[in-house]
Design brief:
Length: about 100
């Protein structure tokens, strides 16, 4: 019998994945910004400014937007991979990659 997650579990796994994905992208974004000669936190300052945050908390709002985006994308990914049988990850093996 194949494992078929409930919609709640699929969403939960997606949310957790989105949080970890958001955390894992912070350092590469900072490093790439510095390599291009920009301030390391420019992405989050721009995002916070676009959403109307005031100058004192623009960075925090930008980081929150980054995490919300990651959670939304992760949730959508979790639902898709949980409900569409072809995309469901049931085992990790060499054969599963070949079709």
């Amino acid at each position: 019998m194949k494992y078929k997650p409930t919609i709640f579990k699929a969403m939960l796994f997606g949310i957790v994945g989105g949080i970890f994905g958001s955390i894992s992208m912070i350092a590469p974004k900072m490093i790439s910004n510095m390599q291009f000669g920009m301030p390391y936190n420019i992405d989050w300052i721009v995002s916070g400014t676009m959403f109307g945050a005031n100058q004192s908390n623009v960075f925090v709002v930008g980081i929150l937007i980054h995490f919300v985006t990651g959670v939304v994308i992760g949730t959508i990914f979790g639902i898709i991979t949980g409900k569409i049988t072809k995309f469901r990850i049931s085992k990790i093996s060499r054969d599963s990659c070949l079709g």
